[in-house]
Amino acid sequence: MKNEKQTQISEVGEFGLIERLTKNIQIKNESTLKGVGDDAAVLDFKNKQVVVSSDLLTEGIHFNLMYVPLKHLGYKSVVVNLSDIFAMNAVPRQIVVNIALSTKFSVEAVEELYSGVHLACEKYGVDLVGGDTTSSLTGLTLSVTVIGETEKENLVYRSGAKPNDLLCVTGDLGGAYMGLQLLERENEVFKVNENMQPQLQGYDYILERQLKPEARGDIVAAFKKIGIKPTSMIDISDGLSSEIMHLCKNSNTGCNLYEDKIPMDFQTKKMAEELSINPLVAALNGGEDYELLFTISIEDYEKIKNDPDFTVIGHMTNVSEGTNLITNAGSAVPLEAQGWNHGK
Amino acid sequence: MKNEKQTQISEVGEFGLIERLTKNIQIKNESTLKGVGDDAAVLDFKNKQVVVSSDLLTEGIHFNLMYVPLKHLGYKSVVVNLSDIFAMNAVPRQIVVNIALSTKFSVEAVEELYSGVHLACEKYGVDLVGGDTTSSLTGLTLSVTVIGETEKENLVYRSGAKPNDLLCVTGDLGGAYMGLQLLERENEVFKVNENMQPQLQGYDYILERQLKPEARGDIVAAFKKIGIKPTSMIDISDGLSSEIMHLCKNSNTGCNLYEDKIPMDFQTKKMAEELSINPLVAALNGGEDYELLFTISIEDYEKIKNDPDFTVIGHMTNVSEGTNLITNAGSAVPLEAQGWNHGK
């Protein structure tokens, strides 16, 4: 907390708090006709289609305030929702943010949280148009709803993949999970000895993947530019394995995923080695990478093959062939939604 | 809980739970193109304007599961959001429901909660199109976002009232608050002696106002039928006093509210007397009545004067005259957002 003044929320009241949190909002999107300040926001999407997604984050389950700065939390809670809109090949325009807080939070703490929300809005060109700020008996809960738009013909669902389509992923995987493992290790050390300084050097990338992830709006823009419409798409919030199974189930296909093709950063592998975790597990089941997983028809391969943002990691098959990980040793292991190596 | 079987959520898993909760959903609205099952819902409002509102409810603050049945809670959490859409003179079409639960809740308990959500969707013709079901360390948190639509020219904001407009309210006020007082009294008795049966006879109306409120979609339909467009409107969630001040502030007017005009039910007054509470306080500051407070131009008076759903409770004035309660004794007392008798 940079600001050392701590004002009790009861001193400013609910309406005073809302005014402090929303006074600097400037509307950026044509489709936002009325933001905060009435019973509802008013939007106009004209002839475009509207996409809506929402998530709920609770303290102690989705985040630990021992090592997650409030500003990062505000930023991330917006970004993870934007990611769902990009996964539809659409563009986010508005968000609604609901927050429940216990009395342990000061006005300044809430402002710090909101500074992250505003920063994400700024970066992604999204308008904060409403929300509820209320009390909780314990801890912090955040609910974010995001609204986006696109032309009907641009929308990409989970259900359009066909056998032989290429399975592709953006960026690299497993980093957010390894960043979390590192933060938890250092938090345990800190709990034993408060004078210990956390050992985080050399791991800035995976820490940022965990604490300040970005949503791949740049990819949606790139698709448009290079003239690709994926046949199916989903964002990676729960881990590659689970997301692939969603695509296969919704598209009624199987798939072959190649272990040696899964993109992983050097820091991810190094941290995994340090903690004796198989990095493949981080990629398959770690989650929170917020990369896009999508399928394209084979004819589109030329358009993406030289772009380092994209990696072809497998291909779709007939549903009867199942969903398989082809290991480096060449054997096929069935993927499992809750972890391919579950029960071993 | 009718169903005595108690299944742990961990037995069915997150995806299993979502499937149980959403399997019977049938889409009712043309504007709902795709509901649950992808990264986002897909909606199409064509040339209509879109209104969005959202609320967060937390256990122990907004509801007490000691005396609020889960089905009622699910119902009410939807209704209070629909009320915001009606307050814009619009029609709700879709909702998104996020729920965080601690492990004390069984699958059957969540289904009971959702049965209330589904019942409200059924009654108000709204589609449940998405949401998040997740864990919490303690208690239950519900976040509902509702999306509605109307033609641009129908929208009513808080800001359109003019001096001399009539201030009107639907239904009666203070009932939900007195219902809550009754439930809390009986809960205290029960905590002292578990064998005591609650004394609720003769108070069915105020109990229903608290436990199973309705949103006034019928009024929005009536406005259309009788050809009225209010000059401003808000729903009564925080109490009459606070809502009047919102209309006055947003419209830059003052108002005179007449004590003797405020509609209250017999049960509300009787319970107030029994508990030695001034019923006026229940109406002004109690909240949760979910009636509509609106202003109309004087020329429209003829259209509403014989309708028992509407009561004229005052009129708007120049902003310099302030926001006043004209008491039965004829004196003017300034309204206060946190209660007109605050600090006395």
TrEMBL record, chains A, B:
Q: What is its EC number?
A: 2.7.4.16
**Enzyme class (EC, first level):** transferase
Q: Per the record, what are the reactions this protein catalyses?
A: thiamine phosphate + ATP = thiamine diphosphate + ADP
Report residues binding Mg(2+) 2.
Answer: D55, D84
Q: What does the entry list as the binding residues for Mg(2+) 5?
A: D238
**Where along the chain is Mg(2+) 3 bound?**
D39, D84, D235
Q: Name one GO molecular function term.
A: thiamine-phosphate kinase activity
The UniProt record gives the binding positions of substrate as H62, E288, W340
One GO BP annotation is:
thiamine diphosphate biosynthetic process
Under InterPro entries, the record lists: PurM-like_C_sf (IPR036676), PurM-like_N (IPR016188), PurM-like_N_sf (IPR036921), ThiL-like (IPR006283)
Matching entries from Pfam families are given as: AIRS
User: Which residue range or ranges hold the PurM-like N-terminal domain?
Assistant: 37-149
Task: Cite the entry's keywords alphabetically.
Answer: ATP-binding, Kinase, Magnesium, Metal-binding, Nucleotide-binding, Thiamine biosynthesis, Transferase
Copy the pathway line from the protein's UniProt record: Cofactor biosynthesis; thiamine diphosphate biosynthesis; thiamine diphosphate from thiamine phosphate: step 1/1
Hey, which family's this protein in?
Answer: Belongs to the thiamine-monophosphate kinase family.
HAMAP family given in the database record: TMP_kinase
Q: Where does ATP bind?
A: Y114, G131, D132, R158, S237
Q: Which organism's genome codes for this protein?
A: Maribellus comscasis
Quote the protein name from its UniProt record. Answer: Thiamine-monophosphate kinase
Q: Where does Mg(2+) 1 bind?
A: S54, D55, D132
Binding of Mg(2+) 4 occurs at D39, S53, D84
The record's misc note reads: Reaction mechanism of ThiL seems to utilize a direct, inline transfer of the gamma-phosphate of ATP to TMP rather than a phosphorylated enzyme intermediate.
Role played? Catalyzes the ATP-dependent phosphorylation of thiamine-monophosphate (TMP) to form thiamine-pyrophosphate (TPP), the active form of vitamin B1.
